[in-house]
Batch of 2 targets.
Target 1
Amino acid sequence: KVVAVIMVGGPTKGTRFRPLSFNTPKPLIPLAGQPMIHHPISACKKISNLAQIFLIGFYEEREFALYVSSISNELKIPVRYLKEDKPHGSAGALYYFRDRIMEEKPSHVFLLNCDVCCSFPLQGILDAHRRYGGIGTMLVIKVSAEAASQFGELIADPDTKELLHYTEKPETFVSDLINCGVYVFTSDIFNAIEEVYSQIRDTSSNYQSATRSVPADFVRLDQDILSPLAGKKQLYTYENKDFWEQIKTPGKSLKCSALYLSQFRQTSPHILASGDGTNRKPNIIGDVYIHPSVKLHPTAKIGPNVSISANVRVGPGVRLISCIILDDVEIKDNAVVINSIIGWKSSIGRWSRVQASGDYNERLGITILGEAVTVEDEVAVIGSIVLQNKTLNVSVQDDIIL
Ligand code: GDD
């Protein structure tokens, strides 16, 4: 038997996702028409002998209650949300719930960050781990040297794949091989975390004051566990050859939505919309997800990289390119939405334009409308972030509307 744990963090962690994360926890914001966390969960479902999936976070229980019960029913696997009273760090949170996680005596525990986008080759990681032995195996990927510093950088033995050296977000370049935030461990991981706690408690060792800038009950998987265990034949690496992205900003979520849509094209093309503008069907270009409840006018032109959630209404002549449209939005006649995320219950007026400014990159420039924003007729919203419940009756550019 194996179990999977997905770290979902909490409200203080999702601040870069504002204004979308004001009313919805970041892990539940849809990418490719499914909550962010749905993608790792459905990857877990494919592991043989998976007994349970735990989500660990410090969001209120009620925020996850509906999702957890519906996904448990859908996948026929128990999915439980476990709430920490406060953040304990990525390893501390795992340790905090060790009794629950080990209840059914699983041989292995998968650990996944909720904010990564990849194909989650979990069975491959587990099979590799069984060959390597040791406490755990982590998914790693090569990125550009410039990008590497935002992640945990590591050195692995090219032959044995052993993790030889690990530094979290180093200031000077170590390696272009980085930590993907996806692991499998044996139950020995709990002993390793316990060890760190006892070093912290042992005041004579000076461990807490000398090496740590975080509270004494806060244990981070990367700095406190991976770094010290590297080079001790305990940890191994499994290289990811498929796509991988981290999802820290809404701009990244547009890119990740595109990646998941193109994965659906390979694995489950029936989920994607089709239509060529004839026979009263809208014109669909590239990978597009449209929830079955959406009312889409046949003269609209949609795609590529568009996902449209439940109960959205799209009027005649509307053009949508590279965007995420959340539930209950109305997009009126001849409006154009490009490189943007439109929050729940918003409304976009006739002949209006909502788009990124200029040549956008994922870091800046995309437009995000919070929940229940109204863009009146013939208004342009360019490269701006609009907080919930605002009404825009004049055009704005490169602005934050509070
Ligand atoms: N439950 C809980 N409690 N979850 C937490 C806590 C906590 O106290 N702290 C962080 N998390 C969750 C976050 O929501 C996220 O899913 C995951 O744990 C890792 O978050 P961080 O510890 O903030 O690290 P990071 O995302 O900046 O970087 C980590 O992931 C990268 C890959 O995405 C590191 O492991 C990097 O080395 C790695 O490259």
Target 2
Amino acid sequence: MENKKEKTFQFVVVGGGIAGVTCVEQLSSQIPSADVALITAGPHIKAVTNYKQVSRTLEEFDVEEQPSGVLEEKFPNLTIIHSAVKSLHTKSHCVETADGRVFGYKKLCICSGARPKLLTQDNPYVLGIRDTDSAQEFQKRLSKAKRIVIVGNGGIALELVYEVEGCEVIWAVKDKAIGNTFFDAGAAQFLIPSLEADKPQAAAPCKRPRYTTEEAAPGGSHTFTADRSSQAYGHGPTDSGSALGPDWHEGIALRGAEQVSRRVSVEYQCEVEKIFTSEELHKSPQQTLRTECVGDWPVYVRLTNAKTFGCDFVVSATGVVPNTEPFLQGNTFVVADDGGLQVDDHMMTSEPDVYAAGDVCTACWEQSPLWQQMRLWTQARQMGWYAGRCMAAHSLSEPVELDFCFELFSHITKFFNYKVVLLGKFNGQGLGPDHELLVRCTKGQEYVKVVLSGGRMVGAVLIGETDLEETFENLILNQMDLTPYGEELLNPDIDIEDYFD
Ligand code: FAD
């Protein structure tokens, strides 16, 4: 391998998604004289634009697909290589690309992202949504579809069921409530009416200071219908291997073949047992057709709740698998249970001089009690940036400390057209029964949940325009004892910002 090296770069970064691009930007700005290479499979790169620091840990930004030349113009010492990495040889410090070239590195950062975990491989009726290509394929298939089955309960499934119109949606979730990755059952109950109508509902505030998640958990199945006028969307698609990010559906019309607008049926606490083609279903003597699957459909899905649904296709939105394969062979990376490359508090993998950032890695340092990894856009940026900082610092033999952004989990997004802010252990993650919840809810307007442990705020879910994010972030960060305030903390008649200033 040694003598096949075309060139050795000081830094090589693999992957033109947010993590890789941010890492390259950080390296190139910190050491402008360094020779940096970005090796990426897709023709475009993802760039962060309109970055806004909303508070100490909350950030908002847009993501743009850009031709890679934009980055090369900005950083004269950067070389972009458009080819997929086929193999990595950590002993000889080089990578081989699909087009047969070999590049040496002094330090390498793997930012190859993740891909959808599909229910089944190579089934033409099962789609995953990851990049612009797969989103386009989904849109094309949807335009001819009358019924689809969406499986999964994370962010992508949540967005899809809300956005898809003109097509019946059967939504299979394994939990007792929708959106389990982000919410508890109470928040799910707050959001569910949005599937019935998109009209803003004005209602009197109802204060429910304490509740248990069991109390609010729905069971069985629910059907919602809504009248929503179709929306026209603008710009056209491009291709890239990077994961889509927030607002990925805004450029594409998600309309099915029917005139009806939204019609979503949720099947709770079930998973997919089997997927049949119509031929297989009719040949199988033990299959009894029930009302859900009457009609001729190209594919049928049997759920573990014993219902079988016929549909045009299935969307598998059940999480992601880190893209580690090309890097593992012949090396001794420690891989985490979720399939990611384990990284320490300097974003270093178990192989010397190899770092990893974004969806491909799993954070394995001793984490702050208020932070957890989630494969999200913001964390891809933060990890890419921090990996770049660590690589530069190590090259210059400078010390570097874990960045403050890993102190507190924070995320701003939109679900069902509501602003959603998640802070800390927003779902009581890892706290066991040793926590208390305070909730304030105004139907159709806002849902505020605070997680308290030992009288201190450790997490919050803010849905709607609550304007509480900064105050709550401070209360979480300063770990003030809030016992004296009790339920007054969420009293809508008290201006909490003034209270704690
Ligand atoms: P990616 O963006 O996946 O980039 C990986 C890069 O590596 C790509 O350029 C790819 O071409 C390249 N690559 C892969 N393998 C190789 C190889 N062998 N050689 C060379 N190059 C390679 N997050 C949010 O925070 N909010 C959201 O609303 C949100 N919505 C989402 C909606 C969808 C449909 C999807 C799929 C994801 C969504 N996410 C969202 C998650 C978010 O997009 C990811 O967490 C983020 O993009 C991860 O960035 P990354 O740079 O680690 O990986």
